[in-house]
Design brief:
Helix content is 48%, strand content 0%. The protein contains five helices and no strands. It starts with 7 loop residues before the first helix and ends in a 15-residue tail after the last helix.
Length: 80
């Protein structure tokens, strides 16, 4: 898990959670969760913290802003 990005959409699918239910849990609207999942917005600090907490830190701040491993870091040695 360390070197892989856990996108919020992946987390929701893996955990069988709807955007509506998750939005209620983190105190926002389903539309906002949809925009976060689709990469249209980066959540503000308070929502980001709520998402990280609600996902038991499986989704990180780096995941939410699109920061992942450097190219080639996952396979260590191959050219991309």
């Amino acid at each position: 898990r360390n070197s892989q990005i856990m996108k919020l959409g992946d987390w929701l699918r893996t955990n069988g959670m709807t955007a509506v239910r998750f939005a209620e849990e983190v105190g926002t609207t389903p539309a906002t969760i949809s925009r976060v999942v689709n990469g249209q917005v980066v959540p503000r600090r308070a929502l980001m913290a709520a998402i990280i907490e609600a996902t038991d830190r499986q989704v990180t701040a780096g995941d939410l802003v699109g920061i992942g491993p450097a190219p080639g870091e996952r396979d260590r040695g191959g050219k991309a």
